[in-house]
From TrEMBL:
Protein name: Membrane dipeptidase
CDD domains documented for this protein: rDP_like
Stored PANTHER family: DIPEPTIDASE (PTHR10443:SF12), MICROSOMAL DIPEPTIDASE (PTHR10443)
PROSITE patterns in the record: RENAL_DIPEPTIDASE_2
Gene3D superfamilies xrefs: Metal-dependent hydrolases
Highest taxon above the source species: Bacteria
Organism: Bacillus smithii 7_3_47FAA
């Protein structure tokens, strides 16, 4: 059973109406691959391209929610909307769950009513930024590296009240520290270790330790440039990030957030959902079946909001 904390299938479906979630060959994740590969929970992100003009942002987010319902849930009665840990526990053996998440809160437009509206539509995890600054915080690639704004603080307080995840992936380092202080349910849906690959999107050791301290989970991601600085990243390099988090005491605090369909470049033999099988085979050479099950599923599921 696999829990994958981040993918951009909705973004792909929105950009190109010809892409086929059921069984197309132009998506990293399809229904058929999820079924064939033992998927149990897949998170689907609402992500707005920075090109979307401000007056269109909430509408665009709603369009992606609509795609989530029309293209993911409606044609596939075996995929259930997951709103709570209880929903996950209630999935039958032949069912899987889909979680709606937000990557960057541009569409909220400093309006917590819009956040709560998305929550009522199923939203259960919120990343405050993508790579750049917005009303809530600075992202990892914003040069000035600012922290949380006053609005960002109110966002996190609201997420705590709603009891849903605050996702620290993509935040600037300063915004990370501001967030980790406030957030009661922090995760990093798709981030790797800076110690292994020096990229501003990755987490430094003290950040990883803080997430562990806060009972959070870090989703290891397969984006090649976050896996290895120079040369072709391989599955063995992904495992180095897992080893490193374990060495920091994070065996029960790591999972996966593939970023499938959010990245054009992929790792050889880890370039579509079905390749989880190859990753699992490699993991089992170094870790026990119990540990691998924790990484793939239990660590994220056990922290899923009630
Ligand atoms: Zn991302």
């Amino acid at each position: 059973m696999i829990f994958d904390a981040h993918c951009d299938v909705l973004y792909q479906l929105q950009n190109d109406g010809t892409k086929d979630f059921q069984n197309g060959d132009d998506l990293h994740i399809t229904y058929q691959q999820l079924v064939d590969t033992g998927a149990k929970i897949q998170c689907f992100a609402i992500f707005l391209s920075p090109r979307v003009k401000s007056h269109n942002r909430f509408d665009t987010a709603l369009e992606m929610v609509d795609l989530f319902y029309e293209k993911i849930l409606k044609p596939n009665p075996h995929i259930k909307l997951v709103r709570s840990k209880h929903d996950i526990d209630n999935l039958k053996d032949n069912e899987m769950g889909a979680v709606l998440t937000l990557e960057g809160c541009e569409s909220i437009e400093e309006n917590l009513v819009k956040l709560r509206a998305l929550y009522r539509l199923g939203l259960r995890s919120v990343g405050l930024t993508w790579n750049y600054a917005n009303a809530a915080a600075d992202g990892a690639l914003e040069k000035r590296g600012g922290g949380l704004t006053y609005f960002g603080q109110s966002m996190i307080k609201e997420l705590n009240k709603l009891k849903i995840w605050t996702d620290v992936s993509h935040l600037s380092e300063k915004a990370f520290w501001d967030t980790i202080e406030l957030a009661e349910y922090p995760i990093a849906s798709h981030s790797n270790c800076y110690r292994i690959c020096k990229h501003p999107r990755n987490l430094k050791d003290d950040q990883i330790k803080a997430l562990i301290q806060k009972n959070g989970v870090i989703g290891i991601t397969f984006v090649p440039e976050f896996v290895k600085e120079n040369g072709q990243a391989q599955i063995s390099d992904v495992i180095r990030h897992i080893d490193h988090i374990c060495s920091l005491g994070g065996e029960h605090h790591l999972g996966f957030g593939s970023d499938f369909d959010g990245t054009e470049k992929t790792i050889p033999r880890l370039s579509r959902y079905k390749d989880y099988e190859i990753l699992i085979e490699s993991l089992l050479k170094y870790y026990s079946a119990r540990q691998v099950k924790n990484f793939l599923f239990d660590n994220f599921v056990s922290r899923f909001p009630q």
